[in-house]
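The material for today's practical consists of a large collection of protein records. Getting from the letters to the tokens is the skill we practise here. To make this concrete, we reproduce a full record directly below:
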Amino acid sequence: MAYIKSANRSASMALAPDAPYMAAGTMAGAVDLSFSSSASIEIFKLDFQSEDRDLPVVGESQSPERFNRLAWGKNGSGSEQYGLGFIAGGHVDGSIGIWNPSALIRGEPNEGAFVASLANHKGPVRGLEFNSFTPNLLASGADDGEVCIWDLATPGEPSHFPPLKGSGSSLQGEISYVSWNSKVQHILASTSHNGNTVVWDLKKQKPVISVSDSTSRRCSVLQWHPDVATQLFVASDDDSSPALRLWDMRNTLKPVNELVGHTKGVIAMAWCPSDSSYLLTCGKDNRTICWNTVTGKIVCELPSGNNWNFDVHWYSKIPGVIAASSFDGKIGLYNIEGCSHYGIGEADFGAVSLRAPKWYKRPAGVSFGFGGKLVSFHPKSSTSGDSEVLLHNLVTEQSLVSRSSEFEAAINNGEKSSLKLLCERKSQESESEDDQQTWGFLKVMFEEDGTARSKMLNHLGFSLPLEEKPAVVDDLSQEISALQLADVATDKVEYENEKESVMFAGDDGEDFFNNLPSPKVDTPVSLSAETASHNAEEIRQEPDALDENADPTFDDAIQRSLVVGRL
């Protein structure tokens, strides 16, 4: 929700530069519900901790005339009596009233709160602004076309410099606004209803640049760019030309940029003190728009009321808070983050590029790093946008730092011997068995080439066997030799039988059959088919019986052989 607090007043306003206060003076040309013709100046306290939506009045004083413009400047006198500075009000009769806000808050009578009356203009005073570099200087401009510079160093006896009045192309009619340059303290700009915008050099006491539109449109307000000293925005309250134009004093032939969004004339304008890319404007089309001057696009828009706003300001103490005064007879405080973002709906949310305001940017930060390092950053100065990064050494445990330095030196050295010694010492210093095993394993990794594998196997509990032939191989060789001898004997017997068959080729075989030995009684000559199948089944089951009764150390021996590489 954008709305924060409000006060039912139809008044021009000004915010205190260094305190949570707001001044409101009865607006000229407007009436309240009672049609009262009286005029007053009031001080409201901006208490954002209170849940009350109504702004409380902490000081009030009657004024002889109504106000066209209010300005609140810092204390330029050096006196503690004016600790909150001065409030200047431009009246419709050409006079300028000076008030002491500290006295108003203390409740002093009107004589004590009213400091001085400055009378030199003829006609309503619409241009009024304090110098931010020299707070005792006050610039004013009125319908007589003159610009006056007032010195409030001695508040009781204010003085002024000779009036500044242009001639020729610098001639101005009714001055509608004056603005001090944000970078060069002796440069002042003024704009008028005849369309001329003049830049004054107070050192030379004369105009140095004059800017005029080709259409000679009626100018209502101007603002210097807070970052670029040669650029300023000029707006018009003419409904036929409501665009905001950015001029660069180095080339005044045509404007640098135009912000188009208002459909009717622009009445007031204010730069954001926390983000120089945000510009706030209000116009007669009942729109209060926040612009991104870098992209030229509309960032967001305040909720519209029954009547348009005629005065807008940024609150410098809380980023994103703005104050707007309207012809509805109300001064409202709003949070710009709660306003409706322009052109962003649920359907096109991803298509619109959102930019976070600068006040969300962290002005300073800190982060821990390795090795006791602490990194921090902060702005170099309050006015500069540059930051500096610092690196700190934060030592909490000296022993940890020494161990880390030792380990880092060993790593950078890259020699296996130093890393091996480091692991060995860590293994000896470790208290737990797991840490000892870990450092011992790392130590083996840094052994000399050719010995690392054997030492790692020893570390894991495997011992390399000596180079000798296994007994299994010898037994197998003996069986193979026996088989070879059996083959030789069989061949020899067959050879002898062949010789005998040749030798006894003439025998009829009677002697052979007579000489055959008699078969034994307990040895069966043939087996039945049932007995043969039973024996075959026992033969087939013998391997399973052998696997079940195998020695379990045989598997361990295979595993160890695979690990140590004895394939």
